[in-house]
């Protein structure tokens, strides 16, 4: 699940959890610090932007260079809290200048988020590797979350302004129920559409509607194979493997979606077996009887899927096709070109022009 969506949910959950305790008369000693906690909720604004950015790039984990987006608000708010907490009365100009700076900061990130989504999601044609209904789902989800960003920004600034003037705790509590309803709806949306947590690569038709496990990259697998075992060893493996076929495939697909191991151009079937913690013979059996393609072709397909996602995320605006080939696990440009054309039917250059 995307790190920044998790961060947004955690920050908002703590906020409403504390409000619930305060409403029932518990944890009253924290109220003095709660005003300062509300100030730091401004951190959800860059978190929204980074969530949208990583969703488009199909990245999930925290990236160190993203810290730059949090430096200004943290430093600014620490200084602001230090000044407010050590002065009983401050001139109106102080509050005006504080909120003017934060307002510009907020507007900037809202604009960046809008530009990013409008260019890469809302006006983008359906990707050839994403089922149409899921492309529609992600467009609606990002639009919904962007509207929440705008509403949350307005409400947050109103609350911060009231609290800095020592009226917010009473005035803010009157409208907590409204924000709680909005976020309950957001959480419920996630619960009924769990696929939105995983990014573009998950949006493919499941391998088999009746399968126990969700197998999003379905086109290459055969859960119930009709092939006859060619030797005694395979017959013995069949007894061990058949009850666990769907689980093994699901675990492979999960690794494929995370992709990291496929970046290694020397990644082998033995490496995958170690990653899955199963014997190499089990994995060999799986690809022999339950896969429509070889392990080598499977690697190529996963890497080409990844390259398409990066191309559609504007990776080539700042990088070359050669660096793209290495980024997705090919040793050089030539095997990347051959694999891309074999899998998509066109060359990488023609695909780029067609976008």
TrEMBL record:
Q: Which UniProt keywords apply?
A: DNA-binding, Membrane, Transcription, Transcription regulation, Transmembrane, Transmembrane helix
Instruction: Note the InterPro entries from the entry.
Output: Homeodomain-like_sf, HTH_AraC
**Which SUPFAM superfamilies does this one have?**
Homeodomain-like (SSF46689)
Question: Is the keyword Membrane assigned to this protein?
Answer: yes
TM stretches of this protein: 7-27, 33-51, 67-86, 92-117, 141-162, 174-192
So which domain of life are we looking at? Answer: Bacteria
Offer an example of a GO molecular function term for this protein. Answer: DNA-binding transcription factor activity
Quick check: keyword Cytoplasm in the entry? no
Q: Which residues form the HTH araC/xylS-type domain?
A: 253-354
What this protein is called in its record is Helix-turn-helix domain-containing protein
């Amino acid at each position: 699940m995307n790190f920044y969506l998790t961060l947004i949910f955690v920050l908002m959950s703590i906020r409403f959890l504390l409000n619930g305790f305060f409403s029932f008369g518990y944890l009253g000693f924290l109220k003095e610090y709660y005003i300062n906690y509300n100030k730091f909720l401004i951190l959800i604004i860059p978190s929204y932007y980074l969530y949208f950015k990583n969703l488009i790039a199909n990245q999930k984990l925290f990236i160190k260079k993203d810290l730059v987006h949090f430096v200004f608000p943290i430093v600014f708010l620490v200084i602001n809290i230090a000044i407010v907490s050590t002065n009983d009365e401050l001139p109106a100009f102080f509050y005006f200048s504080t909120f003017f700076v934060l307002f510009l900061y907020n507007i900037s990130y809202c604009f960046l988020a809008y530009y990013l989504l409008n260019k890469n999601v809302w006006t983008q044609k359906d990707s050839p590797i994403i089922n149409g209904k899921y492309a529609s789902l992600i467009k609606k989800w990002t639009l919904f979350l962007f509207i929440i960003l705008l509403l949350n920004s307005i409400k947050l600034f109103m609350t911060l302004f009231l609290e800095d003037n020592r009226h917010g705790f009473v005035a803010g509590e009157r409208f907590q129920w409204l924000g709680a309803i909005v976020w309950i709806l957001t959480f419920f949306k996630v619960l009924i559409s769990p696929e939105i947590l995983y990014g573009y690569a998950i949006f493919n038709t499941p391998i088999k509607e009746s399968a126990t496990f969700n197998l999003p990259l379905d086109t290459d697998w055969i859960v119930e194979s009709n092939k006859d075992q060619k030797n005694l060893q395979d017959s013995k493996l069949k007894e061990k493997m058949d009850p666990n076929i769907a689980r093994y495939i699901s675990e492979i697909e999960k690794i494929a979606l995370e992709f990291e191991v496929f970046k290694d151009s020397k990644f082998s079937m033995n490496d995958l077996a170690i990653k899955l913690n199963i014997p190499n013979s089990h994995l060999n059996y799986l690809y022999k009887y339950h896969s429509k393609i070889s392990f080598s072709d499977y690697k190529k397909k996963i890497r080409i899927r990844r390259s398409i996602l990066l191309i559609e995320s504007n990776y080539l605006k700042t990088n070359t096709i050669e660096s793209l080939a290495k980024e997705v696990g090919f040793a050089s440009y030539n095997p990347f070109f051959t694999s891309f054309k074999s899998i998509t039917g066109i060359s990488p250059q023609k695909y780029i022009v067609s976008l």
